[in-house]
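Hi D.,

Good news: the full-assembly prediction came through. Inputs first.
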Amino acid sequence: MSADSRAGSAILEPEPLLEKNPSLHAITEAICAPVELPVEKTPIGWIISFMMALGLLGVFGLSVGTLLYKGIGVWGNNQPVGWAWDITNFVWWIGIGHAGTLISAILFLFKQKWRTSINRFAEAMTIFAVVCALQFPILHTGRPWLAVYWLFPLPNQMSMWPNFRSPLMWDVFAVSTYGTVSLLFWYVGLIPDLATLRDRATSKLRQILYGVFAMGWRGSNRHWQHYEKAYLILAGLSTPLVLSVHSIVSFDFATSVLPGWHATIFPPYFVAGAVFSGFGLVMTLMVLAREFYGLKHLVTLRVLENMNKIMLVTGTMVGYAYGMEFFIAYYGGNPYELFTFKNRAFGPYWWAYWSMMTCNVISPQLFWFRAIRRSIPAMFVISIFVNIGMWFERFVIIVTSLHRDFIPSSWGYFRPTLFDIGIYLGTIGLFFTLFLLFLRFLPMIAISEIKGVSPYADPHAKHGHDHDHEHEKESH
Amino acid sequence: MSAVTHARGDAAAHAVEGKVFGMVGEFDTPHDILEAVKAVRAAGFTCIDTHTPFPIHGMDAAMGLRPSILPFMVLGGGLTGTASAFVMQWWMNAVDYPFRIAGKAFFSYQAYVPLCFELTVLLSAFTTVFGLFALCRLPRPYHALFTHPRFARVTDDAFMISIEATDPSWDEAKAREVLAKAGGKEITLIRDLEP
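Then the structure:
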């Protein structure tokens, strides 16, 4: 392990899944420390980041205010590009959320213990990403205060019900279910940790606030019994749910008859892309957070390397899908389909297509090399490339398929306006505002879960020290 | 922390007349507490509980707990979700106000599948979480154990066994002795705040 990733924690000596057997109390201390800092000791880095996030949130407020006042004409979308940045951003944000569910649910079912150091963090990201994603479908309706009649199963002024044969309606249910279930899963996971914060509280206010949300949790085994079952069930429910959400998002496109959208490969291709982009963002943020908060002994290089392997797999799947789409466009013999794909790669939006290809297909392939998989600067840069690439993927799918449709006289070229850009940057501000508040007030690592995978938790060993079943071969 | 726990400790001290809740003992490791629970049960106590920072493998069996009924509640919730989604879509689009779009049948049950799935998951998840709260009798802001000054440590690194006074074979001296014999430390009698 490189020297730079070993430095850091003053509280604990470093090491593997958990490095060097931190005691249970040391785990509690390390994770609670950033949450329990007094107000005047709030790290300056956090304050600066929070100010920047609030600044972007202000941009969001201004852009949305203008949008609501003037209408969606302030955006650049028009015929023939009726969907543009709004839906691109929606799909991008929803996709980012998928990594959180994959880590918390799917890796849980597969008993991947390394997930415990990143699951809380990634789940929080999921929820905030869904919040950002929801802004776009709601705002793109133009008059969101009426959207309740279009989104919920309520009859409109003509007593007509929403059309459930439309994938847009499925999407409403899929995304709202996803947001709700993610929140429930996250909260259930937080309860024992909120109790820890309650019991460590030094002020009455903290004790009451954490106490209310901890609901009187007292670590009783009669509770743990149901709790563990509930956690397993929620993981079991979230697994098909997360696969369904991006599948249904892809139906918004795939069930249309537009060349470039009408493809059976879309559901698996979208799900793989979602996981890919989500891991990208988890990686970007985790590399910063573990550095900043001195949690390298809990979020080890081994965990990061595993995440890079998942990015390699899903990135390769996405690359395969790009190739297969092109092949089918050629092999399918549909001239419109072939035109769309040629236009994607060599038409006026060639720059978007090749940005996507570079970021999504080439950059994850570097993770074949162990040195790159384990290099913090390399994974940080690649993870940012992945996020850029996945944004371009959605832009390419949506805009290039629309801008040159069947009749050349109606062709056009979409350009974003200031408000397109403002709302997009604004949601990034919204995301980071929520995320920084999370880092400040809630434990970013699941305390009770990480104790459960520490060697001390094994009831069959009298002392955890002589058990090294989690020990990783590290070259020190 | 100390200010808060002292406040609790004082409250407990003032309420010495409170009804006896039970006896609590502390153990060092998951291994110790697992063995101790077996000893406590062997001594005839049944109203027992353990309090630990994380779930301990094998504890349900050691305490003789029956499997959780939560999965059956969730099954009920999930089936309700499936059925209500199907009925809702059928009634709204095929019965109450049928309208033709893209030549699709009014009763397009194939198109109902995604919503049926989503509502199954949604209601299952709600049942799981609220079923969990119901089975655990949470939220519960006050519990006699919270008066124990050392109890705050169970969410950190302490492992405790409690024997409740409602136990049919409750006997203060016997409870103390059994916990001590099983290796318990800091054995404390816990009283409720009210008589």
